[in-house]
Design brief:
CATH superfamily of one domain: Winged helix-like DNA-binding domain superfamily/Winged helix DNA-binding domain
CATH class of one domain: Mainly Alpha
Shape: globular
Radius of gyration: 19 Å
Oligomer: single chain
Number of strands: 3
Length: 170
């Protein structure tokens, strides 16, 4: 028995698909290059530091941090090991449940992320937000959330990862 033909993409869907693929491929590369040049960090390492900097007491369980940074525990463990060598992160057993490990942003790590963030934000603004209208930014958020939910219905909503004080009209 032959399998049925897949529902091929329409012309408009194909154009949207290739535009999305281009963004998924080019944007991380461009952000990674800026962070490597400006701070000697990969985009993933930056996300790890940023996640810790926004957490209470600058501390997160490794499993939560991996989810925040959209990486596996193995990838996170390797990144945290590199950040530990630089003195920016340390790992501690979770005192409330020894089965977990906590990642903690050090004072030097705080200094690194606060020094690095302005350049990263400027590049994100230049590449993503400056070309868009405010309405398109809201649409981008909504589209990203819908696609993320289709990929991982039980996963956290990406827009829930907001910095304190962020609003829809910022």
């Amino acid at each position: 028995m032959e399998s049925p033909e897949p529902p091929w993409l329409s012309g408009a869907e194909q154009e949207a698909w290739f535009a999305l693929v281009a963004v998924m491929t080019k944007l991380p590369t461009a952000l990674d290059a800026q962070l490597q040049r400006g701070a000697g960090l990969s985009l993933f390492e930056y996300l790890v530091l940023a996640g810790l900097s926004m957490s209470p007491e600058r501390t997160m369980r490794m499993s939560e941090l991996a989810a925040f940074a959209e990486g596996s525990l193995a990838r996170l463990s390797q990144a945290v090991a590199r950040l530990e060598k630089r003195g920016w992160v340390r790992r501690n057993p979770d005192p409330s449940d020894g089965r977990y490990t906590l990642a903690v942003l050090t004072g030097d790590g705080w200094d690194k992320i606060t020094a690095t963030a302005p350049g990263h934000v400027a590049e994100a603004r230049r590449l993503v937000f400056d070309p868009l209208t405010k309405a398109q930014v809201r649409q981008l958020r909504d589209i990203g959330n819908r696609i993320s939910h289709a990929i991982d219905p039980d996963g956290p909503c990406p827009s829930a990862r907001r910095q304190p004080g962020a609003t829809d009209h910022d």
